[in-house]
Design a protein that fits this description.
It is built from 6 helices and no strands. With 101 residues, it is mainly α. α1 packs antiparallel against α4 and α5 packs antiparallel against α6. The longest helix is centred in the middle third of the chain and has 15 residues.
Amino acid sequence: MSMRDVRAIREALLKTDLVRDCDWLRAVAGDAAAAIGIAIKGLKSHGMRDPVTDAVVSAVLCCAVEGNPGAKVVMISALWRRARIDPVCYGLRVRWLHAKF
């Protein structure tokens, strides 16, 4: 994934109105702490099958690709949870465990 991809994801996230959190713009702009906090709340309240979860985890994904270690941990955790309903995520989780950004 390139920084161009990160930029495209962020542009798409800015157009969504799914996430109702006062820190959402900070999260989308790259504030890893805001993105992680929103994602943790979203995962707890919406589970793994909700479009809100896709959006909040995508914001964390961008931060992880930019090298934030906390965001990487959240990605690994989210993939672990998602693997329970989507076995492909087991392999993705292993790749994330070994990924270096």
